[in-house]
Request: fold
Amino acid sequence: MNSGIIYLVGTSGHPNFGDEFIAAAWLKHLAAARPDADVWLDCPQPGMAQVLFEGLHPRLRITNTLWRLVHENGELPADVAAKNIRERVTGFGTPAYDLGILKMREAESLHLIGGGYVNDTWPHHAGLLVGMRAVSELTGARLFATGQGLMPAVDPLPGETPLFQRFEYARARDVPSAAAHGLELGLDDAFLGIAGEIGRNEAPAGLYVCIQSDMADPGRFQAAVELARSEIQLASRRGIKAYYVEAIPGVDHAAYERMADLIPESRFVPFARVWTDGLPLSAEQTWVTTRFHLHLLAAAAGARGIAVGVKKGYYDVKHESLTSLGSGWSLALDGDGATIPQQRGQLRDDLPALTARKRAEANHLYPQLDGQSGTLTAGAAKLLNKALGASLKNKIRSGAR
Reply:
């Protein structure tokens, strides 16, 4: 039985390991729970996403309808952008969008999957919620949001208050995000896929490093590099090999170029190898990284490390959310020094309970169907689209754009 479209909205395809890992985790879950459903992923880079997620769900389709609409209105005043997005979703008027919007209207649910991309760093991304809400108001589609990192907080677009208005289910992954938008506290969506990632790639013991060059406050990139170099040199004196892991191709290579005299190319792990073979994880590792999801997965595997903050109000909130869960890592924020802790944190021991919580959330949102349950919303949307499609055809024949 085809249960109707499940429509996911995420920031996939860059590629960025954390964002891709989250999307892959949901697709794998849906492949087990809802293999009969047509799953559409709306993301900024559908071409690369198609390559990354090939085969993860038997009925996966990838588009950028909503993201393109948000980006094309991104430079306009917030109230104008919100009005344009709503009008396009509800009123049609251009073949550049109409067919994609018709497909979005067939969704039984629209789900803003996790990550830290709806906040004041990219305020126009609030338009994603405007578009999702417009669909729901028209068709009755259910709205979900999980694992949201929302700091620094963005103001809702005019007429769209609160930010998660009409969402049936919405959870933030950190306390400041939850408090800013009146949401319940949940877990990062990566917890849905951690159990399958740990052990996928057997990693040798050693020091693992990943330092990003993007989104850094002035001076923070260089400070992070210097901290990493110091730890690499200390490890070398102790006979410990150092490895460099790339989470975003190119963006993370700039720091490696400043460490290539200490880490040979043979111990550089490119994103492509991480994605195909698995993130190298081991309880015998130590880490120095600015990347949030490397901190999360490595600590969950039992590794010790230093999490370096490079953007105040954004990355410090991310890393602090993990230390509050018991990662046990030291934090190097605002230039303060840090050393690798001698003892691992509680996160590895607590992981079974945390992943069980995340699976329960996923099963709540996407229960396995029997009979005809769960198909009414999708059916109603299809009937509505049939009527609207006739109107659209008349517009096209008359030359309306």
